[in-house]
Amino acid sequence: MSPAPVSASPADSDLVRAARGLPVSRTPVWFMRQAGRSLPEYRALRAGTAMLAACQDPDLVTEITLQPVRRHQVDAAILFSDIVLPLVVAGVDIEIKPGIGPVVANPVRTVADVDALPDLAPEQLGFLETAVRALVAELGPTPLIGFAGAPFTLATYLIEGGPSKEHARTKAFMYAEPEAWARLLERLSRSAATFLRAQVDSGASAVQLFDSWAGVLSAADYAERVLPHSRAVFDGLGERDVPRIHFGVGTGELLPLIGDAGADVVGVDWRLPLDEAARRVGPGRSLQGNLDPAVLLADRDTVEREVRRIVRQAEAARGHIFNLGHGVLPDTDPDVLTRVAALVHELTAE
Ligand code: 1CP
Fold it and tell me: Taking a C-beta distance cutoff of 8 angstroms, is the pair 191, 119 a contact?
């Protein structure tokens, strides 16, 4: 394969350098949910294998992770997995239903349910280490991003029992049972840290913590009841010298806090221009984002205009990793993603 970046090693790649606020040869690009979703070669490979089984098959994980890198010439791979996988591996009964998402057989509704959750042991992650090592060998100078779901977003699935819009049960539990809530998020932060350490120790060059649904919280509740647990995930990486990306949707009011949880890079959705996001996050962190994934469904001129605007507004940030404001939508034409990656490279080459 012919990797996009010109660096000799992942640790010196444009992605890692941008995350640290160092000079880059051109703005690095990758797309959240670039693996799976819109790719026909993904659907062909996945046919007949359940999502969570595919995530535990090192050969499938390796091949699916590489597909978008080959196709789009993006500057990073993201491990093919899912945020619920650490729970599944630990023994929680969860299924990913096509067209729906994660569905939990026995949702967490009581204090006893919290205490009955199994812990994730590092020894259960052999399949993951095998996949990451194989990937790092294949990727050469292209960095692999490891990831985990943040405690809050995982708690929403466990408590709601599946995807939800309002997350009302989650908030009700958070207010009604503050001690059990803290214990639940502590457990989830431990398993997220275990999951991230396994990826980094096997060769991942950066990590992203997905707190997709944190934007449903007020800044005060986020700061008091969630942030300490997300910080614990990053702290669990200890001295491991990899950049940390922290992302959520609808987090305009939370951006300074999302950075304070221990991020080198704050992921921003499309609601806020990056120059304003840079002001809110402050000078010590880079930004990632923030093309509206729906724009990829629009006409060519609109896509190009929006990409140019984002590249321009990102000049206010310490460093910029071009991405979408949330994951690739399943209906996206993969060729549009390839063109966006090429355009960002062209616009930002030295
Ligand atoms: O690039 C990639 O696709 C890499 C793999 C990846 C990642 C990073 C998958 C595969 N899932 C995720 C993260 C993930 N999973 C997040 C955080 C990112 C985001 O906000 O999009 C979340 C919230 C989930 C939970 C989840 N898993 C959902 C969302 C449901 C909801 O609440 O609206 C869904 C639909 C899944 C299933 C899933 N995960 C991944 C794939 C390829 C699929 C679809 C599988 C299938 O249809 O069988």
Answer: yes
- Take atom 20 of ligand 1 and give the residue whose Cα is closest: 212
Q: How far is CA 158 from CA 33, 187, 278, in A?
A: 22, 12, 33
Domains of the chain, by residue range, sit at 10-348
Task: Output the average pLDDT for the chain.
Answer: 96
Q: 150 CB under 6 A from ligand 1?
A: no
Q: How far is the CA of 348 from the centre of ligand 1 (A)?
A: 30
Work out the burial of residue 284: count CB atoms within 10 Å of its CB; fewer than 13 is exposed, 13-18 middle, 19 or more buried: exposed
Q: Over the stretch 262-283, which tens digit does the pLDDT of each residue have?
A: 999 999 999 999 999 999 999 9
Residue 244 designated active-site? no
CATH of domain 10-348: 3.20.20.210
Mean local confidence (pLDDT), 76-80: 98
Question: What is the Cα–Cα distance from 265 to 227, expressed in whole angstroms?
Answer: 16
Does the pTM exceed 0.90? yes
Which pLDDT score, from 0 to 100, does residue 30 have?
98
Ligand 1 geometric centre to CA of 271 (Å): 21
Q: How would residue 6 be classed by pLDDT, with cut points 50, 70 and 90?
A: low
Q: Establish whether residue 323 lines the binding site of ligand 1, counting it when its CB lies within 6 angstroms of any ligand atom.
A: no
Mean pLDDT score, 298-316: 98
